[in-house]
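Batch job 17 of 40 flagged for manual review because the log was empty.
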Amino acid sequence: MPGLFMVALAVVVFPACLRAQSLAPSTVSAATPTCAANEAEQARYLRERNLRLPICLVVRPALRLLPLTTVNPVTTTAPTLAPPGTTIVPAAGVLPLTIAPAGAAGLPALSPTGAPTASAPGAAAGSVPACVATEAMQTRYERASGIRPPLCGRETVLGSPLAPSTAPAPAAAAGDATGASNSARTAGTGGDGSAAAGGAGGSGAGGGSGAGNGPMPGGGPSGAASGGDAPASANTLTPQAAAPVQGAAQTPRPAREPDQLVVYWPDGATLDPLLARLKREFGLTPVQSTALGNLGGVVLLFKTAPGAGAAGSPSSLEGLRTRLRNALPEVAVDFNALYYTEAGPRQYFAEHLQLPAGAGPAAPIGMVDTEVGEIAALKDEHLTRKSFLAAGDVPASEGHGTAVASLIAGRDPARRFAGAAPGAPVFAASIMRRIGDHDGTSTFLLAQALDWLLSQRVRVINLSLGGPGDALMARLIDKLTHAPGVLVVAAAGNSGPDGPPSYPAAYPGVLAVTATNAADEVYGRANRGPYVGVAAPGEDVWVPDAGAGRYVSGTSFAAALVSGLAGRVLARAPGLGSTALRKHLCDSARDLGAPGKDPVFGCGLVQAAAALDAGALGELAKKN
């Protein structure tokens, strides 16, 4: 009997011990790296040690390292930040990395959660790196500076080449929201979603949506707090723009190869006497030549000493070209010119709106937004700026307002860009400021801005912003929409199909504009509802800036295009009232979606050609 009891005890206890052992938290030995070089190595550690390591991060020298955690099936350690000057040697196949000091190269210092510290509310545009390692880092730079840098490629780490098989894939560190990419597009400047502190999709510690926040642009409700970010004011109004795709700054393209001349000799049979003369009289010997068997003749390439002779002197490249042309008039001589592809940025909105080419007269247009930057596409003689921010306010990034102003009235012939009403007089009221990690404003400032715009006798007011609405704003918008000849255009919002109405767009008398893409499909984050009036392109729309330009998305930018078009219509039919103009833009739109006016596209895609038709405007004038 005692023997039978011992056997039964072993049957019960021994498997329990095995289960307890298998569930015991794994530990990382001194020989275990903090991260895996690639997915294969990650799988090996998981298989052999029951330990799942994060993929090593690819970080540029100018950036601080994101928090790394050691993760096993049971526990997760608290995130820690490597001190400045630390050199980290990860697993094999990844180059050592030295951590730069906080704020290095003008970058904002990062707190342990990765958010910009209070002492560095934003970095200058010039301090943003050419690329970053993760989408979470894109989010943080966007919140700090208003610019979203692209992700770094996998082919280099700190300037040294890596074979594709050994290049570590970027991975979000602990503390980042699992939906960091979506969060980036829903918070702050260029961030249009519903949650003010992280956006839809965020669920990790330190990066989730903020509790108690009022709707962001377009007015979506905030989610429950899961990352602990500070909530914004419940009445905050914010710009309505999704994350821009930032282009790298470009230098002017050189027109020719330096220190090179090309010579075309039409008769290959008599080439030798020419070569002898060139060497004897000019000291020139070609470095390359090519016989054109089909076209006939020979092309010779000559190189001179770099920078030979002062510009314009006989010994300069220009002077040598002149001497050769004078001595050999039968020979074609010129610089070795450079030619480039003409694959410029995709600009589809003009075609989809049927905008007429060139500038045309437009009524004065007002806008309430961020500050508007000094860029070539916006001529100061047509742009009047006024800021309503207090002395201690930190202005919001100017990217949103600059894009909106460009789409209303900008023009840049070098980029083949023109807004909806190029050259129109624009009055820009700046009211957006930094509120925590976000850009926003208040009812108080918006009221001042609207009153100033009325004093400037504008005929159209563009409001590319959104919030929950309030009693004071409802009263002011009602007075504004009943003002003689003033059309209020507002972004419909970017809280998605199920988001609540966004104000002021949803107030009666306001023309609410939703956004479409190049396929005339509705923007995925656009609000829906009976208040949606018309649609215009607003997804992946290219706008000029101080660099190479960028692509932006959001109902903010669709509203800007409609405001510009409305200004042009009023220049041709100045007697139209706001009600008649809203109806005219609706009637002349191209129907999209369900037949007739619907909650997705409203009346459809606005059409400039039909809206500006002289016959239609003449008939409309007779009725009003």
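Reviewer: the log was empty due to a logging misconfiguration, but the result itself is present. Confidence is low (pLDDT under 50) at residues 7-30, 58-126, 153-234, 243-250. Unflagging and moving on to job 18.
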